[in-house]
Amino acid sequence: MDDPALLTEGDPDASLPDALAAAAADPALPAHARALLRRAHAALLAARADADAAHLRYHALFDAVPDPVSILDADGVVLDLNRAGLRAYQRPRDAIVGQPIEVLNPDLPRDHLAPVWDAVHRGRTYVIEVTNMRGDGSRFPVEVHTAGFEHEGRPCLVAVARDLSERREAEVRYRELMDVMDRGIAIHDVSGRFVYGNPAALRLLGIRQGTSLGDTANLGDWIPIAPDGAELAWEDLPPVRALRDGRLVESTLMGLYHRARRQLYWLMVTAVPQYPPGGDRPHQVLSLFSDVTTLKRDSSMFDRVQALAHIGGWELDCSTDRLHLTAEAARILEADAPPATMEAFAAMLATDDRARLRDALGAAMLQGEGFDLELQGLRRDGSGFWVRAIGGPRHGDPATSRLTGTLQDIARSKRDEEVLRLQARTDPLTGLLNRDAILGELERRMRLPGAAAVAVLYIDLDRFKFVNDALGHAAGDELLVSAAHRIGHAVGDRGNIARFGGDEFLVVCEAGPDATRAERVADAILDAFGDGFRFDSEEFTITASIGIARAPEDGDRPQTLIQNADAAMYESKRRVRNGWQRFTPALAEGQQERLRVETHLRRAIDNAEFHLVYQPQVDLLQGRIVAAEALIRWHNRQLGEMRPDHFIDHAETTGDIVRIGAWVLREACRQSAAWRDAGLGVIRVAVNVSFRQLVGDDLAAHVGRVLAEFELPGDALELEFTERVLIEDAPATLATFAALRAMGVVLTIDDFGEGYSALNYLRRLPIHGLKLSQLFVSGVPDDRSDVAVCEAVAGIARGLGLGLVAEGVESEAQRRFLIDLGVPVGQGFLFAPGLSPDEFARRVRDGGGRFG
Predict the structure, then answer these.
(1) Which of 55, 260, 513, 610 is the most buried (most CB within 10 A)?
(2) What CATH class has 340-415?
(3) What's the burial of 262, exposed, middle or buried (CB within 10 Å: 0-12/13-18/19+)?
(4) In CATH, what is the architecture of 610-847?
(5) How close are the terminal C-alpha atoms of the chain, in Å?
(6) CB 406, CB 325: distance < 8 Å
(7) Which ranges carry the PAS domain (predicted)?
(8) Homologous superfamily of 426-583 in CATH?
(9) pLDDT tens column, 415-472
(10) CA 553, CA 560: separation in Å to the nearest integer?
(11) Are 468 and 480 in contact (CB under 8 A)?
């Protein structure tokens, strides 16, 4: 081990002299630390110079290193230790050499050499901070750099341990120095994110205690200002220049104006780029700055900055009322002939603001109080202004003979406030008032003493959801904007209009002495919806349902009045649509009744109040029962027998339809299994499925579990969906239909033709059949329109290879028409109403399932 290259090849301390020189030149370190670093630097250079000159042999170089250096074999046994190590560990040589490295660091884990050799095999130096132990048992922190080399054909390790004790102490002293020095120090990275700010930086920038520099470092809050008063570009900021050029930027004067606090700071900034170890580009920048605002206050340059910030100064001689204004203050008020006295300035203000200013001036002169006022006034040319006047006694003037302060132009901020106020009251899509604004307007009107009766029109667009679902939200938004324009044109200046939410609008107007004004406004709105709405090549007829409520008879509070108008609107929608309905006490009772229904409906399953009846589906030509549709019935002890068309709507609205639908599905499958077990064979049962069930839990998985529970084949179940599934056409819907079809479940579109349908939607879903709505079957064979619709639906079914079932067959003439049309299956009162399970089974058993 006498090759001097052993400890220089791959030596991690090759840059140590530079590091020591840089550290020794750091003015932030104490003098004795710098002296120590200089001495260490000189010793290292001298040692290495001697080694280079004389080709020092191993031990000369080994012992010249000021840090402890250990040579270890592959198992971690110490083969050699330099003199610095003997001094550092305060042990005799024979107590270390030949011993495992744990003698110097008893806290090392058992497999501590594994990561060392891993790094060495990858050609890397392994670096770790540990705590070593002296001979007397005391500990000291070290940073160990370990590299590998071969000696006499065997792998060895060289470990250099640098004592961190003094560095740790220096770091502590450095942080303490940072905290107590009166110059601001801020560090931020290349992205502009602040990493550190000392207390002086926070104080100099007016950042209150407890707030971090990063919290207030948003560039949008500050205006950087050049020495000439112009706004300073981002790329010209000293820290940005230092990072960009990689060079020190010394003693640069710049201003920072804080928008929110309306305060200006003049700073003298020095920016120092900082490089990461081994990097060639700065990774952060340190800025040192001092506050020089006081030095700049009386300079002409500062006046230009005041102009940029629209802030001027004033001083009042209380004995003469003479008012002295800076150039910027004069410009704000009136450049040609600014007021020469405070009374002349007060005369420019609005009456209320004039009184406020005089009161504030009196309090300042008599009690020494300061003031901060926002004032509005008119210049001589008739243009308006908004200013913020801040003032109070001049510092050091016990007699209060003079008042001083600032005058700031705040017209722009006032305009911004007005814009924000309007935005806060406006619906962003339609430009109408929003919900909060109309509620405030209604409350204001209802509180006015002696005010005329107020009416509320609650407007809901009919069939809006179909358009929104079919054409997308962009078309839906366009429809809402068009509807808002039509409503606005119809109402005119007779009331206030708001978009109340979704596709609902609200009109607040006077009811009128004859109590018909609101109704005339409603008629005008309905007329405005007479023409269809066109989107691209599609045209839709969108109507409106309107509810009307009047104050005070229909409610003496805004919420009550709107709630009652809403109830009237729902009644209008339920009855006719495209019409209006006045609120009546009977409607209030209807609301209470709906609430009762919903309350009982929620408990109906738990109370076993539901049961199913089964309407036969019949082969129209042969009269044979081919399937059954399960129809739900509800009997409540308090409400009595409830019609499905009454309570199903409630269940859809409240979301209870999902739980009810799951009950129907299971009960229908249970009954089908019971008929099978009774010897009737497998009878397919059709069950209606709500769209909420389809988009809720995994419908296919649920159906699979129910079929498995009752050991039924998939084709024992038919699921009927509304046309809405065609419109949605979502990937999840397609996946669910595919999974159901794979089980063998029959899939049908119920009441086909009633909603908004299109063939391109229909052909994408893997369905088996369509159900022809009773709405069209009821008019055949006499009504030509119904005949045309039935023929069209039958043609679609034949063209797509789908089954077809006609609902609502009530006469022999209808049956004959449907047979001639090629419709194979029908159901309706001609054959049977909904039957109890036993009656259905009896008809299947006694008549062979035949009718006619």
Answers:
(1) 610
(2) alpha beta
(3) middle
(4) Alpha-Beta Barrel (3.20)
(5) 115
(6) no
(7) 54-107, 170-216
(8) Reverse transcriptase/Diguanylate cyclase domain (3.30.70.270)
(9) 777 666 666 778 888 889 888 888 888 988 888 765 568 899 999 998 787 777 667 7
(10) 11
(11) no
